[in-house]
Amino acid sequence: MRISTQQLFNRGLDNILDVTSQLQKTQLQISSGRRVLTPADDPVASTRILQINQELSLIDQYKSNINLAENRLSLEDGLLDGVGEVIQRLRELTVQAGDGSQNADDKKFIAAEVQQRLSQLVGMLNTKDPSGEYIFAGFQGKQEPFQLNAAGAYRYVGDEGRRFMQIDANVSVAAGDNGKEVFVNIKSANNTFYTQASPRNTAEPPAIITQGQMIDQELYDAFYPEDMVVVFNDETDVVPPAPNYSIVQRSDGKPVLNNQRYATGQPIQVQGVQFEIIGSPQPGDTFFVQSSEKQGLLTTVERLAEGLEDYQDTPAGRQTLTDLLDSTLANFTNAETKLLETRSRLGARLNTIDDTKQLHEDVEVLTKEVLSELQDLDYAEAVSNLTLQNFVLQAAQQSYSRVTSLSLFDLL
């Protein structure tokens, strides 16, 4: 077999390139700390490494969701605790207002603090989370949930949604509670009502109806649960012509009051309740007085402040205030019970989050150990290989140099 000079050169060069490639790979492994650099290095391990990295990425996402949910729920818990403290102060003011030695001016001073506490409550209920969304707005996180309407009363304008966050493959938790469930849907101590203007009214600007006060609980209880509709009539229905209204039962249209002359802001008393309509309603405009077994926290505080402001030092006025204070104290108790129930559920969610978080941390540690076994480099073995490959490379280079320097002319 004849070996040409060209073959000798190619064979020697190939050996040097092969050893150099192995040396560079070992150097790259040492610098990266990874045994498997490409799928070709270990196809089975590469597949498993990819799966494990995906599992770790999913755990990271779960942990991110956990931190977000934990922060929101912790903030909500702190707010509910603050609301409870404000209710306690309002309870003290309610008891103080029942002191028979106080006159109307004293009660107005108490009403002023009640209004301050109302503003404090509204601020808490309209709190934003670190991402700038309102805690108690449901899905309407960008919209302030409790807003002052034209009648000067606070109304909930969020929705009843609850945001759930996935914290594990089969576990999700509510990352908050909507304000309607916590602060509006509170069982009332007595049968109560709320007022509302029809959205189809045509007056410009729209006339408004105040939220009203209970002035005779027994009379209203006898009428409950019927709703009332205030309907404005044509001015010619009374003589001389003037704005006037009638009140009918909503269920069957049965008259309650007929053709009552109207003056803006004048108290309207009917079936044990009192409210005012402010503005210039047009004929056909309607307003609703709807029965309810629930009364929101802000409504309770507003009615307390209004009752203290409007207190009349007469036997009837004193009885009306006594009834208001009694029902207010009972409604505060119901509100506090609602807060405790909400905080109890919130605590259960936080416990679930803590347990799941700990589970993810344990799984992450074990998963990273498996990943390390698959892809991390044995530095002792790698350095030994590097030394050997350096030696082989030097030998190949020297052999190549010596072989390529040989010539027949040296033997002549």
TrEMBL record:
Keyword annotations: Bacterial flagellum, Cell projection, Cilium, Flagellum, Secreted
Keyword Aminoacyl-tRNA synthetase tagged: no
InterPro entries: Flagell_FlgL, Flagellin, Flagellin_C, Flagellin_N
Pfam family for this entry, one: Flagellin_C
Stretches assigned to the Flagellin N-terminal domain: 3-139
Main location: other
Compartments where found: Bacterial flagellum; Secreted
Entry GO CC: bacterial-type flagellum hook; extracellular region
Listed GO MF terms: structural molecule activity
Residues covered by the Flagellin C-terminal domain: 332-412
Matches recorded under Gene3D superfamilies: f41 fragment of flagellin, N-terminal domain
Protein name, per record: Flagellin and related hook-associated protein
Gene: flgL
